[in-house]
Design brief:
5 helices, 10 strands, 5-stranded antiparallel beta sheet, 28% helix, 31% strand, 233 residues
């Protein structure tokens, strides 16, 4: 089988930079983790908050700490650094080759969507952002790596897209359709963020970030690849 990761991000309209931070790291015992955080508010202040959270999680995962404890430690660290006065949402998506599982950690009111067996379901249990309370725990979902599936995690820029016009993106419907079309992870991420931008008339009301992880049948190619595109203006 093969794992594909696709990411698409854009900052809030008329702000200096995105308040969302995202990093990908190889796990010490095999696999990959994607860490996505959205800092409170937007712009540079939000970026500093999300960077604090992502850096803490990445450093702990690199040392072999499990996803749940890493998320709790990042929450406690932000709480101590900012006296519980700021918050950030946090998602960790891990492909753990040691346990042969997909681990989804969520400190985010926005759901995580999963497409498998021709259906799209949402993980949407109540979830608290990190940094406001001590010992804040993530919602953890663990899935076996034995079937094809598509995972989507995102910040509230997707949820809020279209609010100015009383509209919203039907993520379950759109993700299912894109997944069944055979597109790779990056093209699915690109398509969804374009839908969000259309709802906001190309002026996003919030920072928008989405991560797509697709597990599918591989071709037997053993080469690992990663592609990054970063606008400089």
């Amino acid at each position: 089988m093969e794992a594909q990761i696709g990411v698409a991000k854009i900052k809030k309209y008329a702000t200096s930079e995105s308040g969302d931070s995202l990093e990908v790291i190889e796990r010490p015992n095999g696999g990959l983790s994607v860490v996505l955080a959205d800092g409170q508010r937007s712009g540079r202040s939000a970026k500093r908050i999300s960077n604090i959270v992502v850096r803490k999680v990445i450093s702990l995962l690199a040392e072999g700490v499990r996803d749940g404890p890493a998320a709790r430690a990042a929450s406690d660290y932000l709480y101590s650094m900012r006296n519980g006065k700021v918050m950030a949402t946090l998602n960790i998506i891990s492909l753990d080759l040691e346990t042969q599982t997909l681990v989804l950690s969520r400190n985010n009111p926005a759901p995580i969507h999963i497409v498998r067996n021709g259906q799209c379901t949402a993980i949407d249990e109540p979830s608290k952002a990190v940094g406001v309370y001590r010992s804040t725990r993530p919602n953890i979902t663990e899935l076996p790596l034995d079937e094809e599936m598509v995972i989507a995690a995102y910040t509230d820029g997707i949820t809020n897209a279209g609010v100015r016009k009383g509209m919203s993106l039907d993520m379950s419907k759109e993700l299912l359709a894109l997944s069944q079309s055979g597109l790779n992870a990056q093209k699915i991420a690109d398509a969804i963020i374009e839908m969000a931008l259309e709802l906001d008339e190309q002026r996003p009301v919030d920072d928008v970030s989405i991560v797509i992880l697709r597990i599918s049948q591989g071709t037997g190619d053993q080469i690992r690849r990663m592609t990054v595109a970063l606008p400089l203006k």
